[in-house]
């Protein structure tokens, strides 16, 4: 009698992984084809799977690598202190670049979406600059206590005060975590744009924006800039009379391509503005120093401005009388601030306050929906075949699955073109536009509210 047992399934064997040098040579060979192309991101070229980070693009770009810095925004009563809270968040939003290495996640598919939670603690020190606002920017009555703090540390040169955030895992005495929820959707394919919303009702905090990058290969580095629809991150403080802060993204460069040591550098301006408080921040990222040595420093000012005549784009353009604080330090390490218009270097050490020390921080983990609760166009499910193959070092299979996904997207695009049907996002009202601030649809609000309750069901929504 013949056996009815099915033959055993033979898994694809793992392939020999490329060395870093081999990967880089492959990467350079691909980039050379695009010298002179005005925007690499618009071309949407496909990299071999062995050059990709096994992470969907929508999961990778969230700006909440340190969620405890985000939930601390709006804590302080003074406008200057709240602006400093926003600056502190800004310096932590991309810890992955400080702690990790540059990488390329998957390109997003039109209609793809991602959702998650973070649970963090209210452990960021409250920023209070009132003792620093005495005449001539001195510490006034706190100088003696500042000196004693340094003595207790055994280091007379240690900063007097630190407002840096600890790791997100450090619990407060109450120990109750704060939940932050996130939803993003790919709203456009040409140009590639995604919309996102961040939701923390306990703190009356929301944030939103469009993500889009523009990239150009110069022959020695890749220059990355925000695309025309990416007007920055818009943070809204419901409990502070609905203040809104706009945080614009600087240009960055991926260098070290021919040295074989990829690195990210920034040499551009970031602007953080709040029309309601009439305070604005200019952060100048300085890449090169004396004799071309890399410094990776940032120098900044916070100043009073006129929202109806917002024409100050460089630090040197701002009258000293309008400056209320200055910031300085290496953006990969520790950044300090001083209060008042005096140049940063003219302040003694006890007047230089640490706003963030990135050295001890780690990227916060996300809380993800279980696989059985995910839809087929949800990032982690959509790309699971590619991710699993890359982790198994089955790069040929990963490339095949990736190409099948990409061809499916082309088929859907051809069908929309044939029928004349325009793509409409499910969770956001705008594909692009609206001043860079996408609005949630009723379905989008419902999903975020469910995620906030850790209800991953999409029944009745999709």
UniProtKB/TrEMBL annotation:
Sections of the chain in a coiled coil: 395-422
Pfam families: Oxysterol_BP (PF01237)
Annotated keywords: Coiled coil
Region (Disordered) residue spans: 1-20, 129-151
UniProt KW Transcription regulation keyword: no
Database matches in PANTHER family: OXYSTEROL-BINDING PROTEIN-LIKE PROTEIN 1, OXYSTEROL-BINDING PROTEIN-RELATED
Family named by the database record: Belongs to the OSBP family.
Name of the protein: Oxysterol-binding protein
Lineage: Eukaryota, Fungi, Dikarya, Ascomycota, Pezizomycotina
